[in-house]
Design a protein that fits this description.
6-stranded mixed beta sheet, 6 strands, 34% helix, alpha/beta, 140 residues, globular
Length: 140
């Protein structure tokens, strides 16, 4: 069975080389039996799709179906992605609530989490708490 890795992040990330090297590191022992999962669209999802094509990997892009499921299309899409993913790579420094919820679904199932920010690259698993915003002036 293929290893299914979800790649999520903002629409403003364009460092394709950094994303490729991180995914190569994370997936080194899994290739070529890998499926890249994304939420579809511009930014990180588009770069993940480019990575999948360049490596000859299967790509699954699930986009919300607002016509069939008005009001809950994003939740349904996120549930499907969270259930299908064996691991998740979060890309970018600005992590929104929707990404946190999606990551929590994968982590609940025991999947590893990898974070790639604009200022640092951490291709090792990190804790979900590392994605939570820190309040200034309070100790960690």
């Amino acid at each position: 069975m293929a290893y299914r890795i979800l790649v999520v992040g903002g629409r403003g990330w364009f460092d394709y080389g950094n994303l490729c090297s991180t995914l190569d590191t994370v997936l080194a022992n899994r290739l070529p039996d890998v499926v890249i999962l994304t939420a579809g669209g511009a930014g990180v999802p588009a770069l993940a799709a480019s990575y999948a094509r360049a490596r000859g990997l299967e790509l699954v892009a699930l986009v919300p179906d607002h016509e069939r499921f008005p009001g809950c299309a994003v939740d349904r899409r996120d549930a499907a992605l969270g259930c299908d993913a064996d691991a998740v790579v979060v890309v970018g420094d600005e992590i929104g609530e929707d990404v946190r919820r999606l990551v929590a679904r994968v982590r609940k199932r025991g999947g590893p989490l990898f974070v790639l920010g604009t200022h640092e690259q951490r291709p090792e698993p990190v804790a979900l708490a590392d994605l939570m915003p820190r309040r200034r002036g309070l100790p960690d």
